[in-house]
Amino acid sequence: AQSFEKKILCIGAGYVGGPTMAVIADKCPRYKVTVVDIDAGKIAAWNSDTLPVYEPGLLDVVQRARGKNLFFSTDVPAAIAEADIIFVSVNTPTKATGVGAGMAADLRYWENTARQIRQCADTPKIVVEKSTVPVKTAEAMAQILSMENGGNLFEVLSNPEFLAEGTAVADLENPDRVVIGSRQTPEGVAARDVLVEVYANWVPREKILTSNIWSSEMAKLAANAFLAQRVSSINTIANICESSGANVQEVSRAVGMDRRIGPKFLNAGVGFGGSCFKKDILSLAYLCREAGADAEADYWESVVRINEHQKERFVRRMLDAMFHSMADKRIALFGFAFKPDTGDIRDAPAITIAGRLLDEGAVLAISDPRALDGARSVFGDADGRVEYVEDPYEAAKKSHAIAVLTEWQAYRDLDYTAIYAAMEKPAFFFDGRNVADHAALFDMGFNVYPVGMPA
Ligand code: NAD
Ligand code: UGA
C-alpha cells in the first residue's frame, strides 16, 4: 500500500465538503483525502461520473484524483480512526422548533459528528470546523471532544469556507483568502501551523490569515452579512429608480467605480437566495439578541426583510402590469436555480415567486438548464398547474408573460423575435435579473419590465 504523508478526512460530502476535498486532493498528491457521509446515495454519486453537485470544472478535478488519493466512503468510524486532520462540513440549518426557532443555527449534526469523532478516535486529531457556525461553537466542540477520551487528543480549529456556488472550483483554487482560527496556546498554534502547511501547497502565504477562533467564526458570518447587505442595499435603490427615472445599472456603475466601494455585488434583482445568506444573517442577528444588542439585531434582520419585500414587490409589479389578475394565465419562468451555473434551488427566490403566482391562479411553465428536478421536488404537478420544460422556446409558447428569475447566459442569447411570435398578446417580459436587451424587446412589441429602471 502507498504511504501518505498525511491523512485528511472530511465528514459531510455536500456542496462544500465534496469540492473542497477534491481540490485539496488534486493539489496535494502526497495526502490521502477521504470524504464520508451518512447519505449512501450521495457517496455513490461522488463515486460515479454524475456527481451530486454540479460545478463547472469539478468533474475533471474529481477524476484526476479519485481512486489515487481521493476516496468517497460511508465507513465513518474507519475513516475517523486513521485520520490526522478531520474537517467537519455537515449542514447547519436554521433551527425549526424550540428556543431560537427560525433564527438560531441548528447544531445537532455538528454535535453528532463531534460525539462520533470522540468514540472512534484513539490517536491525536486536529478537528477543523468547516461548516458555518455561531461564534463560540468551537468551545462546545472542544468540550464534547475532551470528555472521556482524555483531555488533549483533539485540537479544534476554525476554517470557514468562502466559496460561492457556480464558481466553487475557481474559488477554491484561487481564494481571496483562507482564514484559520486557533487557540493561542502552544498546542493550538502547532495545530494551526499544520493546517497552514496544507493550504500553502497552493495558496500564497500572504493570503493565509491566522486569528483567534472567535474572530474566524465571526469573520465568516460577517462576510456573508456584508455581501447580502450589498444586495439588499442596491435593491432598495433599484426600487426608487423605477419611479424616479434613474437606471439602477447606471447607478451601480457610478457607485461601484469608487474604489472604496468596488463594483461587485451591485446587481439589483429579485433578491438573494441560496442556502446561506438568510440562515447566516439570522444566526448573526440571534447572536446579537442573545448579547442584548437589539439595535444591532434589528439592523441585520432588516437585510432579510428587504429581501422578502423584493420578491413580493416583483410579484406585485407583474400583477399591476397584467391587469391585476393572473387567473389561468400561462407564465413562463426563465430560471429556477438561486443563481446561474448551479442546479441548487435552496432558498431560491423562484420558490417564493412561483408559489405566489400559483396563489394568484397562474399556470406556470418552469424552465431551467439544471434545476428542473429541484423545482419538481417543490411543486410536483400542482394539480396540472405547473409544467417543467427544458426548452425555453417551448416554455414561452402560448404564454402571457415571461419572468426571468435566474441570469443563465442562455437567456441572453435567445431569439426573442421567435419567442414573441409564439406568445399570447399583449406579451409581457419581466426581467428580474436584467439580462435582456430591453430596447430591442420593446421594439419587437413586448411590454418590458426590467428591475430598477422605468418600464
Ligand atoms: P450540504 O447539506 O450540501 O452537505 C452536508 C452533508 O453533511 C450532507 O450530505 C449530510 O448528509 C452530511 N451529514 C450530516 N450529518 C452527518 C454525519 N453525522 N456524518 C456524516 N455526514 C453527515 O451542506 P453544504 O452546503 O455543504 O454546507 C455545509 C456547511 O458549509 C454549512 O454550515 C454551510 O453554511 C457552509 N457553507 C456552505 C456554502 C455553500 O455554498 N453551500 C459555502 C460556504 C459555507
Ligand atoms: C455566498 C457567498 O458569496 C460565499 O462567499 C459564501 O461562501 C457562501 O454564500 C456561503 O456561505 O454559502 P453563494 O450563496 O453560493 O455564495 O452565491 P452568491 O454569488 O453569493 O449569490 C447569492 C445570491 O445573491 C444569489 O441568489 C444571487 O443571485 C444574489 N446576488 C448576488 C444578487 O442578487 N446580486 C448581486 O449583485 C450578487
Automatic annotation (TrEMBL):
SUPFAM superfamilies referenced in this protein's UniProt entry, alphabetically: 6-phosphogluconate dehydrogenase C-terminal domain-like (SSF48179), NAD(P)-binding Rossmann-fold domains (SSF51735), UDP-glucose/GDP-mannose dehydrogenase C-terminal domain (SSF52413)
Catalytic activity: UDP-alpha-D-glucose + 2 NAD(+) + H2O = UDP-alpha-D-glucuronate + 2 NADH + 3 H(+)
Highest taxon listed in the record's lineage: Bacteria
Pathway terms, separated by semicolons: Nucleotide-sugar biosynthesis; UDP-alpha-D-glucuronate biosynthesis; UDP-alpha-D-glucuronate from UDP-alpha-D-glucose: step 1/1
Residues the entry annotates as binding NAD(+): 12-17, 37, 42, 90-94, 131-132, 165, 276-279, 346
Keyword annotations: NAD, Oxidoreductase
InterPro entries in alphabetical order: 6-PGluconate_DH-like_C_sf, NAD(P)-bd_dom_sf, UDP-Glc/GDP-Man, UDP-Glc/GDP-Man_DH_C, UDP-Glc/GDP-Man_DH_C_sf, UDP-Glc/GDP-Man_DH_dimer, UDP-Glc/GDP-Man_DH_N, UDPglc_DH_euk
BP GO terms, sorted: glycosaminoglycan biosynthetic process; UDP-glucuronate biosynthetic process
EC number: 1.1.1.22
Active-site residues from the entry: 276
Domain UDP-glucose/GDP-mannose dehydrogenase C-terminal: start-end pairs: 332-438
Pfam families: UDPG_MGDP_dh, UDPG_MGDP_dh_C, UDPG_MGDP_dh_N
GO function terms (MF aspect): NAD binding; UDP-glucose 6-dehydrogenase activity
The family this protein is said to belong to: Belongs to the UDP-glucose/GDP-mannose dehydrogenase family.
Function text: Catalyzes the conversion of UDP-glucose into UDP-glucuronate, one of the precursors of teichuronic acid.
NCBIfam families assigned to the protein according to its UniProt record, in alphabetical order: NDP-sugDHase
Name of the molecule in the record: UDP-glucose 6-dehydrogenase
Originating organism: Desulfosudis oleivorans (strain DSM 6200 / JCM 39069 / Hxd3)
Taxonomic classification: Bacteria, Pseudomonadati, Thermodesulfobacteriota, Desulfobacteria, Desulfobacterales
